[in-house]
Specification:
The complex is a heterotrimer.
Chain A: H1 2-39, H2 43-46, H3 61-69, H4 72-103, H5 109-118, H6 125-137, H7 144-148, H8 155-166, H9 170-178, H10 183-191, H11 196-212, H12 215-220, H13 229-240, H14 244-264, H15 266-279
Chain B: H1 2-23, H2 40-53, E1 59-65, H3 71-84, E2 88-94, H4 97-110, E3 116-119, H5 121-129, H6 137-141, E4 159-160, E5 163-164, E6 167-172, E7 174-179, H7 180-186, H8 197-207, E8 215-217, H9 223-233, H10 251-265, H11 272-277, H12 280-285, E9 289-295, H13 299-303, E10 312-315, E11 327-335, H14 342-352, H15 355-363, E12 368-369, H16 375-379, H17 388-392, E13 398-399, H18 407-422, H19 428-445
Parallel strand pairs in B: 1-2, 1-3, 8-9, 11-13
Antiparallel strand pairs in B: 3-11, 4-5, 6-11, 6-12, 7-9, 7-10
Helix pairs in contact in B: 3-15, 9-10, 18-19
Chain C: H1 3-35, E1 38-41, E2 46-49, H2 53-59, H3 62-93, H4 100-108, H5 115-126, H6 132-137, H7 150-175, H8 179-187, H9 192-219, H10 224-230, H11 237-240, H12 243-253, H13 257-285
Antiparallel strand pairs in C: 1-2
The chains are: A mainly alpha, B alpha/beta, C mainly alpha.
Chain lengths: 280, 447, 289
Amino acid sequence: MAKSQAVAARSRSNWIIHLVLIAASVVMIVPFIWMILTSFKTVTEATQIPVKIFPANPDWSSYAKAFEKSDFGHYYLNTIFAAFMKTLFPVIFSSMAAYAFARIKFPGRTLLFFIIISVMMVPNPVFYTPQYLLMSNWGLVNTVTALWICSLVSPFATFLLRQFFIGISQELEEAAILDGCNPFQTFRYIMLPLVKSALVAIVIIQLLWSWNELQWPLIINSSPDKLTLSSGLSTLVSMFSTNYPILMAGAIMAVIPMIVLFFLFQKRFIEGVAFSAHKG
Amino acid sequence: MAIRKKALMSAMSLTVVSAMALTGCGNNNDNSASGNSASPASSSNSSDTKAADSSKKDVTLTYTIWDQLQQPAMEAIAKEFTAENPNIKVKVEVIPWGDYWTKMSAAAPAGTLPDVFWMHSGQFVKYASGNFLEPITDKVESGEIDMNNYAAGTGSIYVLDGQNYAVPKDFDTIGLAYNKELFDQAGIPYPDDTWDYAKLAEVAKQLSQPDKGIYGFAAKMDTQGGYWNDMLANGGYIVSEDGTKSGYDDPASIEALKARYQMILDGASPTHQQMTDTDSTEMFKSGKLAMIFEGDWRTADIDGSDIIHGKWNWAPLPKGTAKRGNIINGLGNTMSASGKHKDEAWQFLKFLGSKRAAEITAEMGAAIPAYKDTQSAWVKSKPELNLQVFIDQTVDATAYPAGSKAYPVWFPKESEIMAQAWGGNISIEEGAKQVAAMMNQAIADNK
Amino acid sequence: MNSRSRYVWAYVMIAPTLLGTVLFWSWPAVYSIYLSFLKSENFGLINHWVGFANYEKLFHDREFWQNLRNTLYYTVLFVPLTLVFSTFFAVLLNSKIRGLSAYRVIFFLPQVTMPAAAAMVWVVLFARDYGFINYLLGTHVAWISDSRFAMFALVIVGVWGAIGLNMLLILAGLQGIPRSLYEAAELDGAVGFRKFRYITLPLLTPTLFFTTVVLMIGATQIFDSIYLLIGKTNVALPSVRSLVYAYYQNSFVYYDQNYGAAIVDILLVINLILTGIQFAFQKKWVNYD
């Protein structure tokens, strides 16, 4: 009988755990639900006292207004393009550099590596004004190019991938060298495929950071057709102050693509972000 | 080895890609950027010559404004301009007021100001003295444009050291908007030109029903559309006439600020926190406010609300103990000194200053045009509303406190300090004195 | 292949990253320090050397000290709360219950949500009169426009956004603890909280330590949620305004990029200290086995 008591106790405690987790899950998703509900309300319903949870008639017009009054088409294009550039180039450049730093002993290696990773200790806002002045000198202020050009390289990704290359055994590489491969070929055909999971993780975090970044696009670009989704949302707030249905419609349009991607590739997302945080 | 050749190819393509990416920094292909020069003077020379031999080429100008409510009218003007000048297209861009000057100040030193854009009298001196605006003095002297065509002194706002920098666009004054339905329900006659501030406060109290979320007046923390009018009406001032001293610590100004704040304490107005959660004009639009001060430029916005449409009207601002206070401001259209198509930009600027453009502005109810004798068309744009009050009030109005390099510095800080007073963290008197000290410092620093 | 040509390959392969880093990151970091010793006019086109004047002004500026205090206050509220909640949920999820992946996805959702968009919906949730939070709690608190509560509102938004990731990191740490240790402890009669206190916690310290430092560095850079949740004319702004927010205001709204540079350079010093602490203490505190 002792055994069945233990099982009962266990399933009771499981119930409690589930209750706690479900309650917490609700708290986590309430903001998303509220975002959706508010976007379908009229302004009066959204600010009604007492609170009105469901809109009487779902009103789609806020989406139309948000779309019409701000340049969402360009926001999407710019955000996607910048995210693409900020992912592709750092992945190519960082993996090459990381391999060289990890596997080739060359004069100045420690110093050069230190130069690259030392900027990881600097908080991002420190870079903004000088980067803005650089863009200004190059005539790039208020251009789509300015959104991504400073992120062509990623010290963080270099650091992360180097850790990976260090962990790979020597044997494969030695075989390749015996076969007459030069270091680039060894890197491209032997080593790179071995760190595929790390590359995927880096692609995901670069995408996510780039998609969500606010301060830099806010500083560097002003024309509506040069904004990203996040800086476009901030414009929407300036334009519509407290017209919450329109603001929420805009917010939903801004977050939906990333959330859909997340649901499609949830495992990779979670592993990628957790992994990079861990190794960083 | 096959592997070798392929590897070499991809190594080469990588190097090419990276080389392109790096040189791409210097060679910018984006049309909207204006070359490498950050100095307006040097780039203006090169673009002059460029514009001369390309004057008939297809050009797209950027025209940047801050009011999305006026976007349709500005686009209508641009369309008509393009019909007359088929080679020049105009793209109208809106950057909301709250971000406009931050963005412009980032664009100015980078040489990326829009070809043509709205200028505000407060910001004007900083941009003109920095040589970011293209002077139009020679066009005025040659008679291409006549500054006497513009009403209410708007022709003289954008002049610095004898140089003209802008073509007057419109002018604006402040009015008292009221909800007729709430007055009718309470059996109180509508506001008229006999009202003074005491009457305003009294009626606001009578009309308030805080339990229903309805208030008589929005005693909002606002400058041009708010307490600046009160301060002037009470005999105070905002900046001394010679521009050297803040008027916030003048006893008459402080008294006016306190009187406005008192309406919140009396429950005749929503609190500052409530007005942070819900913009006061939004409250008026949803029928929760009986009265509010607003600028004429909000007419279309307010009237566009289904809830209030047909149930509201404008009245003049109440009289104060000293006079009838009102702020008049005139906007101008200016062109960038570092634009790439200055000849075309000038053509457009001239058109913006034409009678035809003024008529479009008026008929679409966008703003009170500055061009003489076109104001009545604006008044008639919404015949059911008493828009005439805005024209009549220009007689007593005081010019916007502009004309210095200090304004752009103190103006954004003003609202941060006054928010402390309006939110109840410091007294009104303390807030006013802090603002005065801050303004005097800014004036001293930005001679 | 001789080592000489291997060197050449190595230099070629690091060249893009090295050049890009120096141009876009290292040089700007140095230049930011240089900027803090200048005073500029006409939107930064004319500059004068003023030595330590910006720092002197900074140290005499009460607002700066308030901003520094706010930043640190946010950090000391945000970091422990995030750790406690993340550890709590990680322990629950580690108890071999069903639906683990569903919970993971839900908790992780805020992590993939644009902070700007999240801040906007929290504005509505926190509103005093028609906000859902007051409606639920039956309170009537101006969460984001009352100086006494605004900081808590920011912390709530921050913790909400951070739990998902940190819970996963801690969960990974927990799963690395060998079961045999618990079994041994159970034989010794250890149960429930004692197991957690004497086995889980010591073995979890490397993860917790690492998480703490990362969270602290992130917390000192808070900007997005202040910019969009609190806003410019909010009476509560002075009680939450962070160093990065003040940097943005001074550099891009008040036209004083040099004063702004001085502010972020202070932030740089704080971050270097945090990183230093990480290196110095990780051997002492952390139980690496």
